[in-house]
């Protein structure tokens, strides 16, 4: 036991002696380093950390460092005094032949930081800075040459990295509005633009007000429709802000996120609140070293993360300078100039690679390792920082005491790292519930009542709003506006409908088929259009079009068809007569044409067939041999060509003309007639359009009349105004007067009913939005849309003037457009709607001939096929049982020679059919033309051969 005890004491003494340098290490040398330390007022933690670092160097001689420090302090507003102090200290060090190897800069921001950056850049002093700012925020070091980037280094402090967690939280939770409050432990001057850049989140960044104005500050932020609060500061500042807020600001539609650099617990005197609490955590691998530095060197000041950052940064910078000096990389002929010698162009051109030496330092860190960009693409300055994790907790406070703390996840310090969520359900409960008030007007298919729907409504706009709600993440309650109007302004400048609700802040969103109008945009805001340009169109009753399967026969009148039929039979009869009595026909001159391939006897059957087939593209076939018959055939061909050409040319035109034409096909047609009444919906955008156009015509007429009656005009000028017609048409003036006389319907249902009740003697046409009319036509087979659209305007969602919802909804609608979601909605509500009627397609000028008008042709085909079948049966019967058939017995004989004697055998061979006694015209006598066929006993198996 004694020997073991003595050994342990001996090893402990050896370790202490080694730590204090009492045991010399072979080859170990001490490097003297001169540093110029610049700090700003109130940054006492940097002073303490640097002193601890120098003390650490002294107590660890194995580091081989001996540091001589010169100290300068300035403030953020007085650059002149700071520059004088810097020049004085620097000049004194040069006079003492102890020029600084390193300028250690712990100024945070403002004038003091800019002064130090300008000083080090101008005189070429190697510098390691811990100032706030990302890439591009350090204006004096923004355009450094590659050589200067090697020895002018900046490392971002933790207080500059912690605000980036706000960006990660907002992205993850899709927060649309935020108020960011901070105290003097954070610097947010350079964060105003960069923190939430290119994020659709309406936000305010401001410092925490003093005790007297803190409550009113929170109240003003709430009046800006902000319900997400982020508080950056010490635990004391956070406690003051939370206690200054009203109790109602901790309800479910508010969210509080408090972020601090300290590692203590959150406490505040709040009745009932659940708050997201974020604080830094040290690296688990460095906890032993951190505890040793805290206890041995008494570095216990809060916030610890900042103190240890300054400690590690100072130690790493000193070791980097030592390595450069010991490696011989430090220039032997280092050039120094004083502030008085600097003329703006004579900056020393140093080649010190401090950046590489800083990166290669292997000394372990205390709180967390340094994150240094690899490669040369990402700049060192503005992208180098100390890595650490932020612990994310949900703290429940009841009655002024913390009753529960639940871990939600962590966030690793980075410029754009997402949060690592461990409890997704819990973190979602910490979001502020957003419920918007929506007012609408029922108009199918955009908005339709549906008691079974979750919100009591359905339609295109409801589906659109639900998709936007998924992207923007909000809830809504929807109501129908009392007067059923989108919004119109009267003569006194007062608005009604949805516009009135938005002006009075009673509604957050105006939803429906609401047109974007210039007068509306003066009092409210519109999002980007969610629907194509929609104009005004005309809706009328659809006239019924009679149809007939044999309409193609009505191309010619009945007496014409009878004449054609009579000409057919008469021509066929003439051809038969001419062929029978002409000496040059085939049947009367057979010997002459016996070697001719074309031998056609024009009996009455052949004549009828010839005349019929001559009217078809197939042709009539072989023509008569005699000249008289050919003249008859040629005459029939000419007649048939004219008849067929006339019929073909007029068939399609006749079917088109036979369709009932709409009496009105455009707005001009409507304005020029008086038989059909017409009117738009009362209070609609169409009514406003016609009313405004009539007013403009009246004003322009008054201007013209005033000009023409001006006595100061010369005769030439007056003659130019003396036109036959007015220079401004009174088209819309007359139309508006006609609309007022006809009476404006108060609802779309009333307008549809008036159209259906109208007659041919007194019709009614409705003028309204093309989308409404198109849907009515799709769902009602007795209505039609007439003419082209005019006065086209887009549909958009209305919001309060200056509302942040405009930008949020714009982004959401554009996303839906890119994903073609809006096209799918149009397909659903205008083409695949269940309530649409499957109407019979009306004839159109561009359509082909319908089956209802040409179907008789197919009936003719079937009738012809039926007659052919009947004829075939008749041919079978006639061939089998004709009266002039004769049957005789025939025998077959055979003979053979048997012993020199001829033997004849006779046996029955069948029966011979004798037919067709014909007269031979060449011999002038009768002859028998016999065709024989062996008849089998079983007549049912008889198969004729032709």
From TrEMBL:
Q: Which residues form the signal peptide?
A: none
What residue stretches are annotated with the Ionotropic glutamate receptor C-terminal domain? 435-832
Residue stretches making up the Ionotropic glutamate receptor L-glutamate and glycine-binding domain: 445-504
What GO annotations for molecular function exist for this entry? ligand-gated monoatomic ion channel activity; signaling receptor activity
The principal localisation class reads membrane
* UniProt key word Secreted: no
Q: Which InterPro entries match?
A: Glu/Gly-bd (IPR019594), Iono_Glu_rcpt_met (IPR001508), Ionotropic_Glu_rcpt (IPR015683), Iontro_rcpt_C (IPR001320), Peripla_BP_I (IPR028082)
Instruction: Give the membrane topology.
Output: Multi-pass membrane protein
Record keywords, A-Z: Cell membrane, Disulfide bond, Glycoprotein, Ion channel, Ion transport, Ligand-gated ion channel, Membrane, Receptor, Transmembrane, Transmembrane helix, Transport
Which cysteines pair up through disulfides? They are: 87-339, 781-839
Can you tell me where the transmembrane regions are? 9-27, 559-578, 634-657, 854-878
**Do you know which Gene3D superfamilies this protein is assigned to?**
1.10.287.70, 3.40.50.2300, Periplasmic binding protein-like II (3.40.190.10)
UniProt subcellular location = Cell membrane
Name this polypeptide is given: Ionotropic glutamate receptor C-terminal domain-containing protein
- Originating organism: Anopheles christyi
């Amino acid at each position: 036991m004694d020997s073991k005890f003595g050994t342990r004491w001996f090893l402990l003494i050896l370790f202490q002696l080694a730590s204090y340098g009492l045991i010399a290490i072979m080859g170990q040398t001490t490097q003297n380093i001169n540093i110029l330390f610049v700090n700003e007022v109130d940054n006492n933690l940097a002073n303490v950390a640097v002193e601890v670092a120098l003390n650490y160097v002294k107590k660890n001689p194995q580091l081989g460092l001996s540091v001589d420090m010169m100290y300068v302090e300035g403030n953020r507003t007085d650059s002149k005094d700071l520059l004088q102090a810097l020049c004085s200290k620097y000049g004194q060090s040069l006079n003492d032949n102890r020029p600084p190897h390193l300028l250690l800069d712990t100024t945070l921001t403002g004038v003091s930081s800019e002064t130090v950056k300008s000083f080090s850049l101008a005189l070429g002093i190697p510098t390691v800075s811990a100032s706030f700012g990302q890439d591009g925020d350090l204006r004096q070091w923004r355009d450094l040459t590659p050589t200067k980037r090697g020895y002018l280094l900046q490392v971002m402090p933790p207080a500059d990295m912690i605000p980036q967690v706000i960006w990660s939280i907002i992205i993850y939770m899709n927060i649309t509005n935020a108020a960011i409050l901070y105290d003097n432990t954070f610097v947010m001057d350079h964060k105003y633009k960069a923190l939430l850049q290119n994020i659709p989140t309406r936000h305010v960044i401001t410092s925490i007000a003093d005790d007297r104005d803190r409550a009113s500050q929170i109240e003003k932020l709430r009046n800006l429709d902000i319900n997400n609060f982020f508080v950056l500061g010490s635990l004391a500042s956070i406690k003051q802000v939370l206690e200054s807020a009203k109790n109602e600001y901790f309800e479910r539609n508010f969210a509080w996120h408090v972020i601090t650099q300290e590692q203590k617990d959150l406490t505040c005197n709040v009745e009932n609140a659940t708050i997201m609490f974020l604080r830094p955590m040290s690296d688990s691998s460095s906890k032993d070293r951190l505890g040793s530095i805290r206890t041995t060197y008494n570095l216990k000041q809060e916030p610890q993360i900042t103190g240890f950052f300054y400690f590690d940064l100072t130690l790493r910078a000193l070791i980097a300078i030592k390595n450069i000096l010991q490696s011989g990389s430090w220039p032997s002929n280092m050039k120094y100039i004083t502030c008085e010698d600097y003329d703006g162009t004579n900056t020393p051109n140093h080649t010190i690679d401090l950046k590489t030496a800083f990166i290669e330092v292997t000394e372990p860190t205390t709180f967390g390792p340094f994150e240094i960009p690899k490669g040369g693409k990402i700049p060192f300055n503005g992208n180098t920082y100390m890595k650490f994790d932020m612990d994310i907790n949900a703290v429940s406070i009841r009655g002024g005491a913390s009753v529960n703390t639940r871990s939600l996840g962590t966030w690793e310090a980075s410029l754009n790292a997402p949060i690592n969520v461990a409890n997704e359900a819990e973190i979602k409960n910490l979001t502020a519930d957003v419920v918007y008030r929506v007012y609408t007007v029922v108009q199918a298919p955009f908005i339709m009542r549906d008691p079974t729907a979750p919100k009591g409504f359905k339609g295109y706009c409801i589906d659109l709003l639900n998709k936007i709600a998924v992207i923007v993440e909000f809830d809504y309650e929807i109501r129908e506006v009392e007067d059923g109007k989108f919004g119109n302004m009267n003569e006194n400048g007062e608005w009604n409908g949805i516009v009135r609700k938005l002006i009075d802040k009673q509604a957050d969103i105006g939803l429906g088929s609401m047109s974007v109008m210039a007068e509306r945009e003066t009092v409210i805001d519109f999002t980007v259009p969610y629907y194509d340009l929609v104009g005004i169109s005309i809706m009328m009753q659809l006239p019924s079009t009679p149809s007939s399967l044999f309409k193609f026969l009505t191309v010619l009148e009945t007496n014409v068809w009878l004449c054609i039929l009579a000409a057919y039979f008469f021509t066929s009869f003439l051809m038969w007569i001419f062929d029978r009595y002409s000496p040059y026909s085939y049947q009367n001159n057979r010997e002459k044409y016996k070697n001719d391939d074309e031998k056609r006897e024009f009996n009455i059957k052949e004549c009828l067939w010839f005349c019929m087939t001559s009217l078809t593209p197939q042709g009539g076939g072989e023509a008569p041999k005699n000249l008289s018959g050919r003249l008859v055939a040629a005459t029939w061909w000419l007649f048939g060509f004219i008849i067929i050409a006339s019929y073909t040319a007029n068939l399609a035109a006749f079917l088109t003309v036979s369709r009932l034409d709409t009496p009105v096909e455009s707005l001009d047609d409507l304005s020029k007639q008086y038989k059909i009444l017409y009117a738009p919906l009362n209070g609609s955008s169409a009514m406003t359009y016609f009313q405004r156009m009539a007013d403009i015509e009246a004003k322009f007429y008054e201007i013209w009349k005033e000009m023409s009656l001006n006595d100061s005009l010369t005769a030439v000028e007056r003659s130019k105004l003396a036109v036959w017609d007015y220079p401004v048409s009174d088209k819309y003036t007359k139309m508006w007067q006609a609309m007022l006389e006809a009476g404006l319907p108060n609802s779309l249902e009333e307008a549809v009913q008036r159209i259906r009740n109208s007659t041919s003697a007194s019709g009614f046409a409705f003028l309204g939005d093309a989308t409404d009319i198109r849907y009515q036509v799709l769902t009602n087979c007795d209505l039609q849309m007439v003419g082209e659209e005019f006065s086209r305007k887009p549909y958009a969602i209305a919001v309060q003037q200056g509302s942040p919802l405009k930008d949020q909804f714009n982004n959401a609608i554009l996303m839906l457009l890119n994903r073609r979601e809006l096209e799918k909605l149009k397909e659903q509500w205008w083409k695949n709607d269940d309530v649409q009627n499957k109407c019979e397609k009306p004839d159109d000028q561009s359509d082909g001939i319908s089956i209802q008008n040409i179907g008789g042709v197919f009936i003719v085909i079937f009738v012809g096929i039926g007659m052919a079948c009947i004829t075939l049966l008749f041919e079978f019967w006639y061939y089998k049982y004709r009266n002039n058939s004769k049957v005789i017995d025939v025998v077959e004989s055979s003979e053979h020679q048997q012993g020199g004697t001829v033997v004849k055998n006779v046996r029955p061979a069948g029966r011979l059919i004798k037919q067709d006694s014909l007269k031979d015209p060449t011999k002038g006598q009768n002859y028998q033309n016999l065709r024989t066929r062996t008849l089998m006993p079983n007549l049912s198996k008889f198969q004729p051969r032709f």
